[in-house]
Amino acid sequence: MPPKAARRSGSLGDKVFALLCQAAGIFVLILLGALIIELFIAGLPAFRAFGLAFVTSTDWDPVRELFGAGVSIYGTIVTAMLAITMAVPLAFGIAFFLTELAPPWMRRPVGTAIELLAAVPSIIYGMWGFFVIAPAFAQHVQPWIIDNIGELPLIGFLFQGPPFGTGLFTAAFILAIMILPFIAATMRDVFMQVPPVFKESAYGLGATTWEVMKGVVIPYTRVSVVGGIMLGLGRALGETMAVTFVIGNANRISASLFGPGNTIASLVALEFGESEIGSLKLASLLALGFILFLLSFAVLATSRYLLRSRLKV
Question: Alpha-carbon torsion 137, 143, 146, 147, what sign?
Fold first, then answer.
């Protein structure tokens, strides 16, 4: 047994360390609460002026001081959901290949290459999208989709209109590439956590690789996979510069995915520098920031809850 003085010294050090950790955690909560309160107070004049109609209104006229969040909320949700729809199948294919099909010598280089996509600055994605992807879409991709899918019943109206190259669809495509490494890395990590004995038992019963993935791996990791997807969704909701380059920045709701629009983040980035302190326009932009904060917080909180609940199983 150590001497009593050493035990008291170690006990004091543990208490100090615990207090410091607790203070750090409380500081994060205070900072988060301060951000929410500050955004709400700063945006309160807009909520008072327009009421709940601010959330659904499609007006954005600084001259007449009429502001609404409907168009930007619509653009934010549509681009984020389209990005998830594009990114998830590709991320699943990458994770499936890296964990089940790729030879050992290939797994690390390919996995590293996918993760490096997360290190590319968003403005680089935006410039690449504007100068490379948008012209390619305007010349090749969108005309083909308009000619072959635009006339179909039920969904054809989503793919009609002039092929400008920019718009909601292009913004969603860029977002899908940006969130791909986050979702793929999460899927790969959780797939590798499946106990080998489970998969070996399925192989021993004559299951194929896909049957093992469908019947063993996915059921075992489904909650964590959903959590990773929602983390990617949270990343897509708040993206600013990459979306601003390619979405068209028009304050209207278009039925076609090829039409221009905007998101909360892109609208704030474009209009914030022209807003005067104390103006209703500035309050409306801060109210938009508050709404975006609530959306992102809800998505990330849900994903963290799913991941924590999976760890407890």
Answer: negative
